[in-house]
Amino acid sequence: MQAQRSVPMKSTFERSGYLGSMPVAYGITVRAITCRAAVDPDAIRWILATEQPALVYDWELDRVVREVLLMDGVVFPENRQVPLLDCHNRWSVDDQLGSVTDFKQTLVGQYQAIDGLIRFAADDKAMRTRQKVVDQHLTDGSAGYRVLNAIWVPDEVEVVIRGRTFVGPLKVSTDWMLKEFTLTPIGADSLAKATRGSGSAGRLARNSGCLPHSRA
């Protein structure tokens, strides 16, 4: 297949809005991930995003597309912390369950990934959510991010981006800012899972095979 020119996509701007019945922000993209074992609820290492292609809604194209997030293009807030939210709700401080810090590059299978340390707040709602994680009822999460720069690779077109080959149709987000991480009842990315924890719950995660190989 002969390589052809890809199409740069414009940056998007963050604005408040709704997608179906779920409040989101225009320009904010979300992708779901899954954890399959409980770890220490006060110190959860959780895979936040991977380079595995995922189906996401693209605000500029106004449709669902396959997207790859390049992990070397992630931008974090200056304070190196993002909120831990309840189902992407961001309209009240009560929607914040805690925070995510200590971001690290890692590897999940063949895919580059980013993980972070999740800590819950001490209020009743956060404690109830934490218990659902400990009891392994709540297993899924989703990253919310703003795409800063992206390249659209048309159907059956092969392009090289940062030394790597991609085949369309595919959106390759080369630069993106992590805005939040949310806990949600249903996730999608089978490769993204909780990783290291401390105490007996952390040992449970290791024994159940929830730990991907890490370069961090």
From TrEMBL:
Residue span of region Disordered: 196-216
Source domain of life: Bacteria
Protein name: Uncharacterized protein
